[in-house]
Every structure is written in C-alpha cells, then in structure tokens.
Amino acid sequence: MKTLLKNGFIVRVFTDEISKQDVLIEDDRIIGVGDYSDESVDSVRDMSGKFICPGLIDGHIHIESTMLLPEELAKVVVPHGTTAIVADPHEIANVCGTEGIEYMLKASEGLPMDVFFTASSCVPATPFDESGAVLSADDLRPLYDNPRVLGLAEMMNYPGVLAGDPDILAKIKDAKKAGKVVDGHAPLLSGKNLDRYVAAGVNSDHECSNNKEALEKLNAGQYIMIREGTAAKNLANLKMLFEYPYNYRCLLVTDDCHPTDLLNAGHIDHIIRLASSLGINPVIAIRMASLQAAQYFRIPDTGAVAPGYIANLTIVDELKKFHVTDVYSHGKLVLRNGKLAEFEAPKVPMELKKMVRESFHVEKLTRDDFVLDEENGLCRVIGLVPGQILTKELHEEIFFDRNSGIDVSRDILKLAVIERHKGTGHKGIGFIKGIGMKEGAIASSVSHDSHNIIVIGTNDKDMAFAANRIIEMGGGNVVVKGEKDIARMALPIAGLMSDFSAKDTAGFNARVRNAVYELGTSMDVEPFMNMAFLSLPVIPALKMSTEGLVDVAKFERVSLKV
Amino acid sequence: MKTLLKNGFIVRVFTDEISKQDVLIEDDRIIGVGDYSDESVDSVRDMSGKFICPGLIDGHIHIESTMLLPEELAKVVVPHGTTAIVADPHEIANVCGTEGIEYMLKASEGLPMDVFFTASSCVPATPFDESGAVLSADDLRPLYDNPRVLGLAEMMNYPGVLAGDPDILAKIKDAKKAGKVVDGHAPLLSGKNLDRYVAAGVNSDHECSNNKEALEKLNAGQYIMIREGTAAKNLANLKMLFEYPYNYRCLLVTDDCHPTDLLNAGHIDHIIRLASSLGINPVIAIRMASLQAAQYFRIPDTGAVAPGYIANLTIVDELKKFHVTDVYSHGKLVLRNGKLAEFEAPKVPMELKKMVRESFHVEKLTRDDFVLDEENGLCRVIGLVPGQILTKELHEEIFFDRNSGIDVSRDILKLAVIERHKGTGHKGIGFIKGIGMKEGAIASSVSHDSHNIIVIGTNDKDMAFAANRIIEMGGGNVVVKGEKDIARMALPIAGLMSDFSAKDTAGFNARVRNAVYELGTSMDVEPFMNMAFLSLPVIPALKMSTEGLVDVAKFERVSLKV
C-alpha cells in the first residue's frame, strides 16, 4: 500500500531546512522524500501549502495526571499532532504495583499514537509513604523485555543515589544493561552532588527552572527536558535552550497536564506555538519534540521525515500558528482535516481490568475515626501556600474540646490521610490553614504519591461521609456539605483515572472545583490539586502521611503537638 | 585509584564551551568536572594552560592500508591523540575470511586505544573477484556478539541493495537486529536511488565530495563522515559541514592512511588542525571527532569530558595548533609529555598467527606463465590516469611476436593478476599504458580487493621472478631488474601488513617506491598505489581480474582482443 503526499513543505530536522517535496509512504514507512510525481501509488493527497513535520513526541508525561485512560488521552492529543508519548506510570504503580504498569501497557496498545513507558523508579517515593506496592529492582527488571519500555523513570530519590543505596543503583544498572535510558529528577542539584548523581548513570533532567541550572546539567552530560505543563511552566525561563548548540540536547515535555488544558491550550503543539511566540524558530522546536526525543529514548527509525523512518507525521497549515490538520501514525491517516478516525479500544485482560477497579481495601469510616484524643495546646499546622505545592510549618493553639479541634474562624481545618491499600487501619490526622472552606468537607483518592484517601473538613461528620463516598466510588473527588455530596467525580481506575472522555472529565473536574469555592475557598487556591500534594513527603516543609506529620527538611516524623 | 587533573581548560562538547575546571578520575571513569581542589586523591597533575579534550575517534579506517599491525598503529596514532578507531577489516577479510577478522580482534586487544570494528559487508567486492573468502550474512552474524564490533562495514554494493539481493538485505537486517549501525559507501548516489539505499537501513556515508551531495545525504538521514586521508581528501570541499546545524550529523575519518602521512602529518589531530586553518572553531571539530562519533556508533559513555564518561582524554597545549602532549585511555596515562608508555603486545593465539602468515597457496611461476598465445592485433589496454584510481579503456595494436607483446617504446607494459588463495591456477594477463617503466618488473600482494598477486613488467622473466619473490616473502612489494630484486618490502601478515614499526614501514615503502622511479616511471605516478587498484572491478573503466579483463561500466568480462 503506497501513498503519495504531493507538494508539501517538508520540515527536515537533519538540516533545520524546509523544502517543497513529495513524501512517498509504503505501509508504515516513509520510503522517499523528493520528486515522486511519476510514481505509481494507491493513493495521492495534495499537500500544497501544508507543512509536513515529524510526529510530535512528549518525552515525559504522567497519564494519570490527565485523569484519562490512555485511549481517551489519545483522542485529545492526536488531534494536536502528538504521535508518541513516553509515560511514567508512577501513580498507578504506587497503587497497583507492576500489575498497574502491565494494565497501562495493555490499555495503550494499538492506539493511533505510540505509548511508551519508563519503569517507575521510586515506588514508594519515601519510607514514610504507605503505598499499595513496593517496587524493587527485581520487580522492574522484567519490564525492560518489553520494547515499549524505554528506560527507568525519573529517579527522584537522589539522596539514595548519592548514598549508594544498593537497590537504587541496581535499578540504574539494570536499565543500562538492557540498553535503556535513565531519566532524572533533581531540582537545583548542583556541583559535586550533581556530578555524582550523573556519574551514577542518570541521563536527563526535567526539573530545570533557570538557564544556569540547565547549563550546568547540560555540561554534566544530561539531556534537558523543557517542561511546560499545567503544574510547572519552565519554557519562558529556559528560552536560551532553543539556541544552537543547546537545542541538540533538549526535548519538550509536559510532565503533568490537566484535561482542561489539553482541550483548550493543546499538548506539544501548544509548546511549539508558545516557543514561536517568543521568537524561536518553530523548525527547531519541532526538531526538539521529534528527532531529539527519539534519539534520546533510542526509539528506532523515528523523529524525521526521511526514507526508512516510520511514517509518523504531523501536518499543519502554517508553522507559527501550528494548527494541526492531519496526522499519520505508522503510515495510517489517523486524523484527516481535523477529524479523528475511529479506532478500536485496546483489549485489556479482564483480571487486570478488575484489579485496577478494585483498588480500595479499607473499612467504612465513622466520625469517631476523625477524633483526636489530645489535650488543648500548641500544635504543628500545615500552612498552605497558594499556587505552590510546598507548605509552611505553622504553630497554632488547637482547642480539641471545641468542634474536635477545628476552628473555621481562624481557617484551621482538619486534614486526614487514611490508608486504603492494605487495610492497615493507619490514619494520619492533623490541621491545615489556608484552604478557607467555611462548611462541609472534601476528599480525594488522588494524594501523591501513595494515593491514600485524603480529606479536609470543617467537621468530622462530613469528613467521614466524604471519605466513605470515595470508597463507594472506588476513587474520585467529592465535595460534601451536611452529609450530602454536592459534587463528585468518579476516578474508578486505581482511584486515579476516569472512564469518561476528556471533555466530560474536564467538566466533572470543573464542577467539583467550583463546588469547593461555593464552600468558601478562595479562587487563589486550587483545592484538589493543592490537597493532592499535602501527602507528598518530598516537598518541604510539613506534610501528612498515614502515620502522622512529616518534617520534610529533617526527613523525619514529627508529633502533632509542638 | 583517584587522579585529579587540576586547572585545565575543559572542552565541553555538550555546549561547545571551554571552562577552567578540575577533572576527577576514578579508575577508568571521569567522576567529576568542577572545583575538586579539596578532594583527597592518589595523584594530582597540574594542567594549568592545557586543554583537556575528549579522546579523538577515527570513525572509519582500514588498518591494512597503513600496512601496520594494530599495535604499531597504536604507537603512531596515540601520540596524535587518538583514543579509538573504528576499523573495517575488509582487506584481511578478503584474504582470510572471518578468521582474518578474528585475528584483527585479537591483535588489537588491550592496546592503549580502543580498536572497534565493523563487519566487512562486501567480501568479495564483486563476482569477478577471486578472493580468499566469501562472507555471507550467516558468516557475519556471530561477529555482532562481540561488543567491539559496532556495525556492518561500508555497504559498497549499492546495486545489490537497490536490487534487493537477499543476502545483502539479510546482512543489513542482522546488524540492525543486533542494535548496530550500517555504514554506507555510495559516491554520488542521489535521488530515488539514494532514498531506496537509505531506506534499506544504511546510516552513513564517507564518500561525499561536495556540499550538494552531503546535504542531500544529510536530509535523507545519513550521518556524513568527512574524510581526509592519504588517498582521498574531502575536507576543504565539505567545509560547510562544520557549521551548525550540520556538524551534529558529521564525523571525521581517514579511511585510507599511509604510515608516512601518519608519522609526518598526524591522524585525526591533523584534520582538526586543517579545519582550524580554514577558520573552523576547533571545539566543533573536536566534538565531531569525539561525541558525534561515539553517538553515531553507540559507544557507551564515550566522547565527552563529563561525569560517568570513560576517561579517554586528549590533552593539548593549545587548541588551534593542537599539539598533543598527554593522552588518557580508560583512566590510564598512556602518553605523558609526548612520551608513549610501554604496553604489552596483544596475545594472539598461535593458530591465528600462523594462519595469517601462511596466506599464499600458489605454485612457483615461470616466464612461460606470462606468455599469451595470441595473433597480433588490436587489443584492449588499460590506460592509467595519474593521481586517480579510475582507468581508461585504450585500444592498441599488440605485436605478440615481439617481446611477448610488450612495447616499452610505446609504454605498453604487461600486467598480470595471479590467483594466490586457493591454487586455482587462474591468471589474467593483459597490457597497461602509463606506468612508464623502461626495464624490470614490479609485483605486489596488495591488489584490491582480493589481494591476489599483481605484476607489471617490461619482460616475462622479470615478471616471473617478481611474482615468485612475493610468494617467497609471503606477501609484500618488490622491484625487480634483471632477475634480481633491487628493492623489496615484506608484508607477511596476510600479504597486507608489515611486522615492523611505522617508521621502518614508511622507510621500506619509500625505498620500493623510489626504486620504481629508477626504472623510469614518472613521479606523477604512485606506482604501488596505482597498481593496487588495477584489479578492483568497481571503479571504471577497465580492470584486470584473475580471469581476464572486466569492463566496469558494463559490469562484464571482456576479451583482450577488440
């Protein structure tokens, strides 16, 4: 089966040139780029005036952050020109272990884009985390037999690397031995520690927030992934990296993206538009999002419009506006004039499907579960910082004899993290200032990185009700007032993902968010996103685990009472 | 074992920058680049004022063309800053098959530079060649298990690729399957044929002689090896490739280098100096000869001065003059202030040593073996073109009844190619114009690509004597006059390599060459080099095989008589 794309402007990533040429495709491959007007083919498409680019690759994304199943994610990003993503299934791995990764592999097979994975390196993220699974080097090793697994995922545990933790070094060694890459994650790591981290075998970083940091990491030999997602936006600060010679060692990634942003702003195409708007040559941005990504991840025959390459093509009307009209995936026209071709849903074995949908192993809760048997006194309280995921440690007088310690007038609400994977009965209960709810409670099963049940409330009754709604739904977000849920969003797949479309998921997401604002929270706060990070004990200062407060700087548990 | 190189200027190939820094080496690895002045180490060397570059890599060389054993080659190129070469053992493979390749692997183990190989793809080069071995895909496949074998060597048989020859496609496929590269060789191939050749999986080209050709091949996805050796000098014509963005897809190679040039001009360091003299930033040339080569050939952790990289370092006084003072190979100081450290000779198993030294399987010859039983008449005569390896087809009246057809007055000498591998008794005899010898005969066992015995003479007696001297020496070059050898050079290893040092070999080489000039040959002619290509039936127009003349353009045998 031969297809001829005639007279398009070809974006040639080996020379950063554009030339008017035909592209000849046979089955899944490009077999010629040049004058093929006299070639006998099965179909011809006139591409006059269009720009034919290599398909776009997101080098680092957490699918779970989009709250979408891979097939629903494909439906939203393929129309934006994405032909491949490299996903770290870190969240589902924390809930379901390697079976969760297996589920993601199956649930992303045969989509109109390539879904590659990296093996989640830090499950759980810290010893304070009570996750659904603990993944050792032995657990990860077999994953590398799958050609869709391209490496070890972001090695966040850089203290472990520097300390020479044997299991961590084994994870890195195994990836190298299998010929795979090792992604890094080490914000602001510098000097000798950076050298040691890199020398241990960590090939990339996606946490750079300024040029100085990026230059040091480039010189140390790391590839830099320029990140522009919903949560973290680094492009404007890293504009220099689009220049020669830096751009040859840089990729474009989103890391964490919400469905609303994917629908409204776009995906990698959005990053290319943003770069263009800053005066960057779009051809270079396109190369970084295609050839550079494929080379870094060693994806064979991918990332260019050239003979022998897989026919993954993103076709746009114009380079700066980068409006995607057509997409080819492995030689198949999967987007035609903006319309996505139908595709079969991936076939996931029933036992995997069942397993990820039955991820809650926890008893129903009562209001008594939220009561603390403490004397009145000075307590450590988590201080929310709007727009950030780090927190402050506050010291506040808590009156346990009045409304169970909660004081809405001072914005001191109760926070609970309830273990939900193994029925250990562990729960961490404390206080948070800065959410601003005047009534009710909110709960979620999205709470990094272990994804236990996290609840914030103005009273114990609503907190118990909210937590129980999460259990009943098998995961999700809920907003409760007077023991009624006023808004909810089910995330039944591992408590992380919806089974709705991007549009519906974005709609539900907006609804639960707005419902929190109705309870009095200020719109400076992103309630569910902020809450989701209150349990992540790798970001300072004070966080809540299933066994109580953690002082992140000291990397130790601390008591509620000061 | 930790070594600290203090205060050097580091050539940083990830950013094309130079910065003053310390380099910390532990065992065979670089573990830090930065301020390590307070580090406790086993030895410290002050590098103030020196430039520390990644070790230089020659991406394509035929060791046999240097006429040196790998250990003697190392002695001459390591002092020029070479820390790795990628050799195609094409010549010895034509004589000794995979055992010849095995010999080269053993004979290059443990040297103070890395010697990598590619598996010779075209043995023999054509069906007209009567070589010592025929290497099929099945023969080459096991070579890829050796991590020092990096790919399939230059695929010269592009007609075979385009015609879809199954054994050739299998060779390419096997290399890819093993995760290795496929080197190309397709001078001036262009358009649809280039696309098909590249789409078949050929990753590079080292035959580009102009920018237009190089740009087309770059756009087709090939890496370009800029060649500057003894035989072919392409750098000046390809100066553009040192610019951004082209330099990211280009390497520096020598292909064929004579020992005299290695001694006098240098190796890859010479190419860097030459580039600098043309106004090219030496940092870019250094990167092309280090990081780019290592990336193309997928040599792990090689090609940069960065943490985790193998400590292969080339240290120079100054970048433009690029005078090498010190070299580290795998963390060992192998060149110190210009003085090469002694090293143990590689241990080669006796049976391999014996095999390559007993490569002649041919009976002694007599003058009668050179007599042609023909009537006088118009004959095809090979016309030499001074300074080139292509020839012309001339038509000349040959008088077989006078001096056996030879006519010194018209410069029509006799040319013979005598099969010497398997005792087939085949010989091709004809005539050549342009050598200019007035008396005597010359013979050699270096005759591309099959390396049979090639003889040119002014009389049959001296030709027989010369051929027999080659057999007696087990290979070499000889100059004969009046049935005495007036100069000779033994090449007893497969009839291709000397067991002397570079200096001695260069000396012998000069002596045999000058002896030919004493016989009347003009100094426009490089007698042994020119003669060596008269048997290569891939370069037009008329060549001599062991079974007679070959019309290269028609790719068929032709008779002596017109």
Describe this structure in words.
2 copies of one chain form a homodimer. Chain A has 562 residues and is α/β, with parallel strands linked by helices. Chain A contains 15 helices and 28 strands. In chain A, strands 1, 2, 3, 4, 5, 14, 15, 16 and 17 form a 9-stranded mixed β-sheet that branches. In chain A, helix 2 (90-106) runs antiparallel to helix 12. Chain A is globular, with a radius of gyration of 24 Å. The model of chain A has no long low-confidence stretch (mean pLDDT 97). Chain A binds chain B through residues 12, 14-17, 19, 24, 29-36, 176, 179, 191-192, 194-196, 198-201, 215, 218-221, 244-246, 248-249, 300, 304, 306-309, and chain B through 12, 14-17, 19, 24, 29-36, 176, 179, 191-192, 194-196, 198-201, 215, 218-221, 244-246, 248-249, 300, 304, 306-309.
Residue stretches of chain A low in confidence (pLDDT < 50, at least 5 long) are: none
- Give the total of beta strands of chain A: 28
Secondary-structure class of chain A? alpha/beta
Helicity level of chain A, as a percent range?
10-25%
Q: What is the approximate shape of chain A? A: globular
Helix count from the secondary structure assignment of chain A: 15
Oligomer: homodimer
Largest interface: A-B, 42 and 42 residues
Mean pLDDT of chain A: 97
Strand-residue proportion of chain A: 25-35%
Tell me the major beta sheet of chain A. 9 strands, mixed
Question: Which radius of gyration of chain A do the C-alpha atoms yield?
Answer: 24 Å
- Kindly, what is the distance between the CA atoms of the first and last residues of chain A, rounded to a whole number of angstroms? 73 Å
